[in-house]
Amino acid sequence: MSQPVLYLKNANIFQDNILILKNLDFEINKGEFFYLIGKTGSGKSSLLKILYGDLPLIDGVGEVVEYDLPSLKEKQIPFLRRKIGIVFQDFKLLNDRSINDNLLFVLKATGWKDKDKMHSKINEVLTKVGLQDKGYKMPFQLSGGEQQRIAIARALLNDPELIIADEPTGNLDPKTSMEVMELLNQIHKSGKTILMATHDYSLILKYPQRTFKVENGEVFEVVHQQ
Amino acid sequence: MSKSFEKYQKRRLQASYLSVVLSITMVLLMVGFLGLTVLKYRNLSGYFKEKVSITLYLKNNMSDKQQTELKKFLADKDYTNKIRFVSKKQAAEEFSKDIGEDFLSFLGDNPLKSYYEIRLKADFVNPAQLVYIKKELEKNDFIEEAAYDAPLVDLLTKNIKTIGFWLIVGASVLAFISVLLLNSSIRLSIYSKRFTIKTMQMVGATKSFIRKPFILGSVRLGLAGAFFASAILLGICYKINHKLPALALLEDVKVLALVVGGIFASAIIITAASAFMATQRFLRLKTDQLYF
């Protein structure tokens, strides 16, 4: 029986004391790929924020990569995030430094010391996303698709147990979205667990996976028609 | 195209750093002037205080040996800065010079007494100490009278206290304003990077790891500001010293070193503390709160 990478039980999610989602009950096992769909403002991002510690889980039970969410302390949050790779819609790269330095920052911040190992890891992830020759560039010198690939490479640096992608194709054109999706699909095939929020149904049709829908303050699994 | 854009961006970045360094320089220059004024004020008030003298009129018929012994006795006192002996004859000459006529010719006899004039150390020039010193000296068998200008000492002490008080009040207000200005410059420069700070948190960096480069960067800007402020201050001191040598601004190397050291210390302490507090503030905010 595979182990859940994350689970929530009877969880109610609040933002500024307002109940956003109620009675959440779901789990994701190692190696699974889940979509999280729902209208804008339905609470997808709030749910993801709970998972990476940007919002506290006040009511209910939950665990992410072996961190108990209700008892999660401020000091534990950086260590939780080191076991999760997060990909954002707006890439969130550090625009004041080159791509190599962006990746180097993450490695240094997460405790890497050996320079050779760091450089070889950076080469490895850049190669994985097909941008091994762009390391010297500044983020603003890359296209949106390339920046998102770099964000994915950054998420892979610490070999995370879970990748959370919050609408990673939201800022991209359909062709580039497909390329990024293809990359995430390859990463999933290599054994990674992925939870991806999206409202791009064409991607779901092209790469069908189990899907949770957020609607009317509730989360439920959608059964795809074959 | 991309290169020229990069150059343009670099220039913009340098200009923003320059404006932070410039505001730090101006504030530290103000701190430096203030420090110099406060330190020099102590010297200046000391200078005036050390002009106060106490005159000891001696009894007649003292032998040379007794005069020498008395001089040694006076020189050993804590409060003595300088001693000057004036004989009866010298006193008569000085008095004649002052009044513009030879009073000895119509008096026939010299009624003046020999005296010691003691210049006191600044710390002992206050009404209470002088009353005590006068009483103590008048107990001496060879001294007929100890005299000083009591109203002048009262006025001098009162004025020095008043000026000193307002100088400290002014210095405190300006120091407070300086800290506020520096703090807001640093805070603004860190505020512009609040989203970068949040991204750093999202990739697993600890608060202390994120804070460190911001603090070091701010201290570096502070040190640059301190360097320019010190250079400008010393340059101005040099110019003032040239025009007003009586102020002896460049003579006291200790005071100058203290002021320059103070500028650098203030720069490090204020920029480090401001950067720490500003970074800490943005580290505590949730992503949504960054937009307010």
Automatic annotation (TrEMBL), chain A:
Superkingdom: Bacteria
One GO term (biological process): cell division
Keywords assigned by UniProt, alphabetized: ATP-binding, Cell cycle, Cell division, Nucleotide-binding
Domain ABC transporter: 6-226
Pfam entry (one): ABC_tran
Gene3D superfamilies, per database record: P-loop containing nucleotide triphosphate hydrolases
GO molecular function, one term: transmembrane transporter activity
GO CC field: plasma membrane
Protein task: Part of the ABC transporter FtsEX involved in cellular division. Important for assembly or stability of the septal ring.
Similarity annotation: Belongs to the ABC transporter superfamily.
Record's protein name: Cell division ATP-binding protein FtsE
Organism field: Wenyingzhuangia marina
Upper taxonomic lineage: Bacteria, Pseudomonadati, Bacteroidota, Flavobacteriia, Flavobacteriales
TrEMBL record, chain B:
GO CC, alphabetical: plasma membrane
Keyword Cell division annotated: yes
Domain ABC3 transporter permease C-terminal: residue ranges: 170-279
Membrane topology recorded in Swiss-Prot or TrEMBL: Multi-pass membrane protein
Lipid biosynthesis among keywords: no
Span of domain FtsX extracellular: 52-145
Compartment(s): Cell inner membrane; Cell membrane
Primary location recorded for the protein, binned into one broad class: membrane
Keywords: Cell cycle, Cell division, Cell inner membrane, Cell membrane, Membrane, Transmembrane, Transmembrane helix
GO biological process, one term: cell division
Pfam families: FtsX (PF02687), FtsX_ECD (PF18075)
Transmembrane feature ranges: 20-39, 163-184, 214-236, 256-278
Entry similarity comment: Belongs to the ABC-4 integral membrane protein family. FtsX subfamily.
Function, as annotated: Required for cell division and gliding motility.
PANTHER family: CELL DIVISION PROTEIN FTSX (PTHR47755:SF1)
Record's protein name: Cell division protein FtsX
